[in-house]
């Protein structure tokens, strides 16, 4: 009789995001291919009943078991996807159905490791499983998670976070990164990287990689700030002081700072640094420019300033970033 399999339960419910459901099992299946043998994972899709579950994509998924059935077993990893709806103002809102929350709370008591993908963190939080923990979710619902669950330390930036035996992932495709991290935790980095190559992911992304892009930051409600954002992008290589931006916007420096904090949630200096780091990331990914040239073109001036900014914003160095994310 061989060793017991690791039971991985993926929670199903109506309007769930399809990729959240299919992504993790695909990673575990590719692990079997790389090993040339059974990976030791038993993946089970569980729902309240055995009726087909309709995903947000309209595709129906058949459960393998009910929550009641898997509740009788020891679960290695419980993966909790999420679902969203649009409110009256057309804003994305995460849903945490009470019945699903109750089952997740119950199943967590029989689970070694919890993992949420995308907005599934809202379900974990509603079940009281993120209290006092650091967690992430899709950037579009991070403010909602923080507002509804102040007991959770929400960090909207990383693509996934591990806090003890609880893992939380960010946007949809980050479910692949989180699943690869689970594989690395169980089998080591080398095998996880081999699986990443099978997925045609050039490299497995570290948890610290940001899910944000300055260019994809929420659109300002003030045209003046949008004009300034474009101005900053066009003049990154030049000195960009608060004084210069205030003059460009025809406001005082104090008023400019208030506007940026209100509209973008950060100071002008922090925004400028983020914009420069993003421009540098793009050059590191797509060009052979030296660090000196990248620093100059993006307005850092010196490589030391570039390195300090990368450590501060991305918790890595420019060289390490290029090694991981260079497009070939």
TrEMBL record:
Alphabetically ordered keywords of this record: DNA-binding, Transcription, Transcription regulation
Protein's UniProt keywords contain DNA-binding: yes
Ranges for domain HTH araC/xylS-type: 226-324
CDD domains: GATase1_AraC_1
Matches recorded under InterPro entries: Class_I_gatase-like, DJ-1/PfpI, Homeodomain-like_sf, HTH_AraC, HTH_AraC-typ_CS, INH-QAR
Top-level lineage group: Bacteria
Keyword flag DNA-binding: yes
Pfam families according to UniProt: DJ-1_PfpI, HTH_18
Protein name: DJ-1/PfpI family protein
Species the sequence originates in: Glycomyces tritici
